[in-house]
């Protein structure tokens, strides 16, 4: 973890600001990807039950520990739980849970207090939802994991979370070009000419610039790749610094370009992106 800057959570835990995403990484490819990532120096792996590949991620971790490449205490593993992945009713619509997010947070706190995890956080929470859970919380969420990249820079929500001591984890930092619902004509962040221009200045790739953009803004970030050369490329960002002017310029690319809209949950009263809140 030596090269990777760290962040201190509000609970005092130190956490690497860079990790590997695993959504859409197929079970048959994720084990090798995680092994390559650990060999490269990644120490944070972002997982979820929903990604359907946690067993295979675990196999890679087990192997690298048994080889003596890392110790368990050097690794930072994030998971997100859920039972029935996308329950659907007889009418074909998603069946919503009637458990309130505040009650879920209280249950998450218990998991932490029992020592089953070192930190607990939230994901895709908007300002209003955070305010609701903070009213009852005895543990402040360590992080809010949210979509964040130059087309959706999340300035307001980041500022709000920081004011409450909540770190940001920027997901889909490359704009999630392999999201299943991407259309051929959708703009591709990694091919943006303006980002390419900045990248040329530093002899870096657009992906390296937009990952570094997050780290320099103080955000944890978790680009996904199953390709060894891109896993290495995304990690090779510690030898250059964007200027404050570069960062301010990239900030201007914001176009409310959200790509993860969670359409399955549209109509749910707690859908986080269908209100005026940020
Ligand atoms: N909490 C949530 O609701 C939530 C939602 C979305 C994502 N996430 C987390 O955030 C992680 C990252 O987000 P994401 O997977 O949506 O998208 P992403 O990391 O923005 O983009 C991944 C895509 O970029 C490609 N890629 C990787 N490195 C590249 C490079 N250097 N140059 C060009 N293309 C490159 C990958 O292809 P290859 O694999 O072929 O390299 C893949 O197609 C997820 O994997 C997941 O862990 C969380």
From TrEMBL:
The active site is at residue 51. InterPro entries: AKR (IPR020471), Aldo/ket_reductase_CS (IPR018170), NAD(P)_OxRdtase_dom_sf (IPR036812), NADP_OxRdtase_dom (IPR023210). Pfam families: Aldo_ket_red. GO terms for molecular function: oxidoreductase activity. SUPFAM superfamilies: NAD(P)-linked oxidoreductase. This is Aldo ket red domain containing protein. It comes from Asbolus verrucosus (Desert ironclad beetle). Residues 19-81, 97-252 form the NADP-dependent oxidoreductase domain. The record marks 80 as: Lowers pKa of active site Tyr.
């Amino acid at each position: 973890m030596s090269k990777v800057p760290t962040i201190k959570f509000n609970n005092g835990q130190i956490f690497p600001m860079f990790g590997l995403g695993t959504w859409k990484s197929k079970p048959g490819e994720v084990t090798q990807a995680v092994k390559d990532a650990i060999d490269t120096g990644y120490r944070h792996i972002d997982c979820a039950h929903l990604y359907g590949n946690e067993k295979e991620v675990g196999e890679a971790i087990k192997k690298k520990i048994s080889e003596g490449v890392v110790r368990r205490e050097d690794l930072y593993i994030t998971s997100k739980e859920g039972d029935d992945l996308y329950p659907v009713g007889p009418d074909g619509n998603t069946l919503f849970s009637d458990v309130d997010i505040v009650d879920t947070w209280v249950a998450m706190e218990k998991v932490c207090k029992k020592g089953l995890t070192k930190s607990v956080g939230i994901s895709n929470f908007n300002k209003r939802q955070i305010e609701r859970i903070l009213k009852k919380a005895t543990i402040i969420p360590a992080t809010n994991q949210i979509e964040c990249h130059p087309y959706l820079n999340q300035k307001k929500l980041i500022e709000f979370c920081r004011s409450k001591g909540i770190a940001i984890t920027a997901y889909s930092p490359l704009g999630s070009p392999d999201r299943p619902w991407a259309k051929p004509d959708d703009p591709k962040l990694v091919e943006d000419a303006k980002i390419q221009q900045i990248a040329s200045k530093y002899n870096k790739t657009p992906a390296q610039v937009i990952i570094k953009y997050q780290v320099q803004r103080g955000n944890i970030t978790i680009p996904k790749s199953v390709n060894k050369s891109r896993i290495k490329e995304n990690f090779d960002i510690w030898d250059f610094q964007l200027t404050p002017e570069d960062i301010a310029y990239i900030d201007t690319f914001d176009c409310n370009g959200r790509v993860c809209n969670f359409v399955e949950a549209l109509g749910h009263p707690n859908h986080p992106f269908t209100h005026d809140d940020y």
